[in-house]
User: Fold these one by one.
Assistant:
Number 1:
Amino acid sequence: MGLAALAITLTNPAYADTLVDNIQGQTIAADGHVERFKAMLFDDAGVIKALIHEGEKTPKKGFQYRIDGKGRLLLPGLIDAHVHVMSTGFAALTLDLSETNSLAEALEKIAAYAKAHPDRPWLIGRGWNQERWKLGRFPTAAELDAVVPGRPVWLERVDGHAGWANTAALKAAGVTSASTAPSGGEIIRNADGSPSGVLVDNASDLVGTHVPPPTARDYDAALALAQREFYRRGLTAVADMGSTMEDWQTFRRAGDANQLYVRIMAYGSGIESAVAIGGPGPSPWLYADRLRLNGVKLYMDGALGSRGAWLKAPYHDKPDTRGLPRLTQTQLGNLMSRAAMDNYQIAVHAIGDEANAVLLGTMDDLSATYKGDRRWRIEHAQVIDPADWPMAARVAKSIGLIASMQPVHQTSDRLMAEARLGPGRLAGAYAWASAKANGATLAFGSDSPVELPDPWTGIAAAISRVDENGQPPEGWQPQERVSRETALAGYTSNAAYAGFAEKRFGRLAPGLRADFILVDTDPMTATPAAIHQTKVFETWVGGGKVWDAEKPEGGAQGAEVVKR
Ligand SMILES: [Zn+2]
């Protein structure tokens, strides 16, 4: 740009400003309370210039574009503080047969999927269930061959304990009449001894290991689908909990191609990935605040459902075990020190009360060495012994503590958690209000694809502890409910804070990115059931529209996204 042109731009700063009015605007304010406004002005770079409140004059001129909000509710773009971006995308890319009610219906779906994906060398799917189909037997390779004769097809059963192959897949894997099943597995055979197409348990590896790993093109397609899963539900940013180098390169390709619509705060999968991606430390914010490597994701233990969570006392429903740590305390301390030395933010998966106790103890110890604003994160923080809250409070006060929790886990896991923990240990389970009361910043998320990346279900659960079916009506351990403001902050300002992004997005305020959504339901007043049903009309990221419910097939295609 020549000097003359630059001068003109500078003297006409309002040239490409956009005014959004006829809205009921709502955001978490800097002080944590809800701030209401009736219009918003943002600039050409997608940065907010002003909120116009009730009693203030909405500008009549000085802007280039006007968006009529049609009286709808305008909220900050929501943030999911714990997702697995690429797994979400690959799940969306995979053929899903879990809703099919007959073999014929499944075969129809498989044929359509094959037609829709002519370039995929293997067709991969999951979710079939011959019981649901009332088939009375396993399906066969021949039945698959009838709809996909040429290309290998490999479909996992709903429980993951069997796979269904067509003849091309059996051939590619070299599974013949002569093949023997590995121990712990079974090859289902025809009367003549030839494999019928279904391989059970360990035998499924005979084919599974031949499925080609995803290509870069697959990664790109999966990322596009993942983003769509996010922005159509009103999410404009996510934290990716365990990015590999392949994941990061996929994010970078999308950014380079101007196709990164949802902001990603990445946490490297272990120290090796974090260091490989970040080198000497966290990356800068890239692509106008759309991507940053913040830190590292570590695992202290497993999950409650599979009894891998590490408890202080035995499982109520399996007294011979209390789960297992995935790291010793020494290993955890070493890994955390390694990360902290280079200022990587640390996010550690901890579910069981012993895992949380050891993690908090290690944080407490290390906070003497690694001072400052660290915002170390506990991912899930699912079961905390109330005796350990003082330790959490100490860490929160000295270096900042983030409790990254998933409200929908409480509603989904309620009965399972009662079985695993018994009645005596429920007080510290999914204890959002206690975490907040002890100084932790509550950042909310979904753990997608474990759960749908649906923030509305999460907000409804957070304020009620009642599930989608209204159970239990009085709320489960209702003392751990949070206020509506806290729930909204958990999905906006606090989720941004949890990723060191609070000066960039997460609230609507001058100087922050214009990430916002237009919806039909007010989370400050609606019933939990109504919040769960919230319709997202539009999603905007950095002043560009990425989702319009009236053009759902359009997705982010053609939307004016990154202006600068
Ligand atoms: Zn996770």
Number 2:
Amino acid sequence: MPIRTPEDYVASLRGRKLNVFLFGKRIDEPVDHPYIRPSINAVAETYRLAQDEPELATATSGLTGERVNRFLHVTGSAGDVVMQNRMQRALGQRTGTCFQRCVGMDAINSVYSVSYDVDQAKGTDYHQKFKAFVARMQAENFVIGGAMTDAKGDRSKAPSEQEDPDVFVRVVERRPDGVVLRGAKMHQTGCLNSHWLLVMPTMRLTAADRDYAVVAAVPVDAPGITYIVGRQSCDTRALEGGDVDQGNAQFSGQEAVIVFEDVFVPTSHVFMNGEFEYAAPLVERFTAYHRRSYVCKTGVGDVLIGAAATIADYNGVAKASHVKDKLVEMAHLNETIYGAGIAASHESKATASGNYQPDDMLANVCKHNVTRFPYEIGRLAQDLAGGLMVTMPSEQDFANETTGPLLEKYLKGRPGVSVNARRRMLRLVENMTLGRNAVGYLTESLHGAGSPQAQRVQIQRLMNLEEKKELAKRLAGIDDDAAAGGDGAK
Ligand SMILES: Cc1cc2nc3c(=O)[nH]c(=O)nc-3n(C[C@H](O)[C@H](O)[C@H](O)COP(=O)(O)OP(=O)(O)OC[C@H]3O[C@@H](n4cnc5c(N)ncnc54)[C@H](O)[C@@H]3O)c2cc1C
Ligand code: SF4
């Protein structure tokens, strides 16, 4: 039965016997773990949105003609790419965190076009196999995790130059019926909450790195995979009981280390196997897709701006001019991120395979803004929240018969606002700027889809400085030939 509802989705994750470790212990059933469940809830919202707003979160598949979840849709127009951004903003607003499903969506769309290009050049059959794989994912309505980032070891060295060859995922054995993978992928968003992983190379490769040029789909429960779940700031609050101090008790992101210890992948699920020249185009197309996917953070930003405005209201300062100005600044920064991202999507062009690829420059500008602006939005939110956001006693102290009444008396804001409302809003700001969901709102904004320098390198490559110099010289009346030999005037 395909997954249709959020409840179907949660049920589909049960009983998989994954090899998962958290806090040094193996977890039998991640679905019921209070640490992990909020991240499952966030993915479940992608299914709920598809029910609530099918125009936004589903699309008609060009592969099957069926209505499918937009996270599994191969884009067939620039409009499809734009709709992804709109959906991402809506989900950021609903969850206030990373809802984890976009890495797979962007991986599908980049592997789709690159597998086509490889086949055209090399006579392979990757693209047909990939289309069959995606059609199956669409029919089942599965979640796909995008596994790109390797452990990477010494960052100054290529995969084949590393002291330990396993710090990048590689093919350790080629069999007649498939390949065997070894290595580790880091920071893997929502991997436990996925059904399949799409493994991809993480950087430009050379002939010496041939074994690292592998794209393969692997079921999350394949033998040989171990998951080690990452910590998040203030994470143990999820284990304390209570729902106030968590700030956002319902939703969180999830990242884990995935270790592949000789994982077999049948040929039908291998979509690149040694074509090292295509690693760079794949990384470029994926990052263009994913860097403009970071408009997700504008949905999260909407929540944080709303929280800052609400706490200012609760504190009785909503009408102060500097407060209004700070909220305007937050909105301006947030919309600047969205502007570049949605522009990148609008400017999408058809690839040879027929799907659409967003504008590389604008996508990189979007992500580069994301490496900075959420930090400033977070700073302004903390400014408006006041210091209580980080000095407030625990919810157990509010429940205590001695300290509870004292806190009720002294933590009041303006008349008509309950202390409970005020502390919940402060905890939400804390959650998003310092706590669990600051992982998604801040550090993921910095490093996810590539650290800031990766965007600067791409912007430098794409900015076409020579053409800009010519524009300036033309208006200034300078002729290069004349400049070399005389006064330079035209
Ligand atoms: C919350 C979160 C979620 C993520 N989710 C996913 C996911 O789902 N799937 C996935 O595949 N990846 C994911 N990532 C990984 C993300 O793409 C990487 O974090 C990012 O590419 C940076 O890699 P790194 O963390 O290894 O940092 P590093 O590459 O070690 O970078 C650290 C610093 O070193 C610099 N640096 C690195 N290499 C060089 C070099 N050769 N020369 C000079 N300077 C260098 C960088 O510019 C940066 O300033 C996620 C990351 C985060 C934080
Ligand atoms: S960081 Fe944003 S784009 Fe990436 S998976 Fe999370 S919600 Fe989607």
